[in-house]
Amino acid sequence: MKFFFLQRNKHGRIIMITWLLLLSLSTTSTQDGQENSVLRCGPQNVTLDYDSFLLKWEDDPSCSVIRDGLVYELQLLTADKPVHNGEVVVTPAQIGSTHSWKWTSHLPSQCARHSVRLRSQYNNQSSPWMQKMLPDQGEILVLPRNQIFKVGSTATFCCTVPDGESIKTMFLLNYKGANVNATKISEHVHSLTVHLDQESENWSDVICEISKGNISGASFHASYPPDDSDLQCETRDLESIDCFWNVGRAANEHPAMERIYQLQGRVLKKNKKQTNKKKNPLELCDRANLTKRVHMVAPEKVAASTVNPRNISLKWSWTVQKYSNFNLTCQVDVRKLKYWLFKTENFGVGLTAAVIKDLIPHWDYDVRVRCGTAQHFWKWGDWSKSVKIRTKGDVPDALDVWMKVKEDQTVISWKVSPSCLLQGFYESNQTNVSRSNHSLTLTLDPSEEYMVTVTARNINGSSSPSTIIIPRLNLGMKLTDGSNGSFFLSWPVSPNASCGYIYVLIFAYKTVADHICICFSTAPFVIPENFEDGRRYLLSIYACTERAPVLLQRREGYVRETKGELFKLKNKQEDSAVEVSWEPIPLEKQTASIHGYILYYQDKSGDVFNVNDPEATSLTAKNLNISTYNFTVTALTAVGLCGNTSIIVTLNPLGRLIITPYGLFFLVRLSTFVIFFDLLNAFHCFHQLIN
């Protein structure tokens, strides 16, 4: 029965009170002596996805009059037993739309009888339950099948049998994992839970055996998911996208582990999002404004627009026209015979030109260009193809000229520009020097002063003259010692030093001067250069004058003496004496200053004798018996005994020697204690010999 309540409004019209219609949404029923209020507004068109447990439904049309929302109550049952309850709240704005609810079971849906019940609730009123049930299987079945699991996860398998059958056991095959738990869910359903703590070598199997002896099974594979990382996407032409990532751990070679990459992208306003997905599955995301991820292509048609002796103007073009809108920074790489010389960097909007400066005339250069965006620099673009360019010729630069005095000879040396014919002038005489030579040796009177001028000449003309004044060099050489890897220089004050003092430091005994340093000073100081131990240096100190420098001192020495190769021995027998000799050791081969030599000799009886002479180039052992002797010669230096060259000599009555090499000459670095002991022993034996 329907009831309508009418009322006249202030305008005299009759209206119906609509809220009274809500009375038609519910009815009252009597059951077991109690009254329940049943809500007619409920779900309709209910569907259930059996694989994902996704439940969908719509509202009954009668729900449209509800203004403050309603609630749907859900209940999931397994084997007719409630295992989970849930609810979905529907707002007034959502009434009339499709609603959904999803539940994840620890068992596959086919492993047990699953059902879902659904009803609506409003103002303590409930609609009747609506139930959806998954169908039963009519065969022996082990699920899930052919699944890939992650190592470290837990997998649950189930075995179902139809009515009239029972399960005897469930077990694993071809898997080494030991953490397995079997559970009886019902007479017709058993489950097997496995902790997958290691990778499968191949397919592994879950076997289900029933009471009648029949078996069924399912295969699975445990592996590591792809752990690729660092997905980065960029654009080269501002129209397409390139993406890169680091490939992680390689899975085993099982076909199921084949990696299949899918690149998905979509525009998010002005940004573009790239997603890399795999079957295994893995998802990597990168999101960026691609105008800030421009990896530029190589410039095209790089060429020289203008070539001068000392600079080149370059030009190039772009195949991507949109580059003309970007503020660019470009590097120009300059090489000579595949050796890198320098890079220049240029800036500009749509840059297509650059100037290379400070070049050498008449040289062949290899030039290439690459660019990047200046405002949002991402990375350098590709290098262009290398272009060979030769600068135009020019007159040579002024030469860098040096001198070195060795006894009565003076060596003039210089650094030259390529492709030059050099000229040297001295004492009003002229000498032409070919471009293959970088020095000239002169025999000069050390008591006189000379002026030497050197110019370089080529087909374009001559360089500015380079002049060096050779002062009077009739000063003796002094030895100097270094300390802590440095030289300490001091000198008497010279009244001629109007502009200070100059020291020149070079390696001693070189045919061509090997210049290390030339500096100005007004007081004694320590030279903190990176000197080499065991190398002899020549130091010259000059007074700086308005004319030529005046030589004040010449010194030779070591910053630190070392033990180095010194000599090879020769020997000769005369009656009962043996003379051991060696050639003089040039100073340039001495790694320490030699103060003398010591000869050790020992016969079969074990007696040791020695003689020493700081000036000798030979030492003689006299009054020897007919026997076999071991002769050893060492040099006495500031760092101890150097050298350990030995020979074995057998004396005979006829004065002929039988010589056996005792070994190649080599240097032995002795500890301080051993050196001290040998010196004491040597001088003690020498004292006994002369007494």
TrEMBL record:
UniProt GO molecular function: cytokine binding; cytokine receptor activity
Signal sequence bounds: 1-30
CDD domains tied to this protein: FN3
SUPFAM superfamilies, per database record: Fibronectin type III (SSF49265)
Protein's name in the database: Fibronectin type-III domain-containing protein
Fibronectin type-III domain segment(s): 298-394, 563-656
Matching Pfam families: fn3, LIFR_D2
InterPro entries in the record: FN3_dom, FN3_sf, Ig-like_fold, LIFR_D2, Type-I_Cytokine_Rcpt
Transmembrane stretches, start-end: 629-651, 663-683
Cellular component GO terms, alphabetical: external side of plasma membrane; receptor complex
The species this protein was found in: Oreochromis aureus
Keywords associated with the record: Disulfide bond, Glycoprotein, Membrane, Receptor, Repeat, Signal, Transmembrane, Transmembrane helix
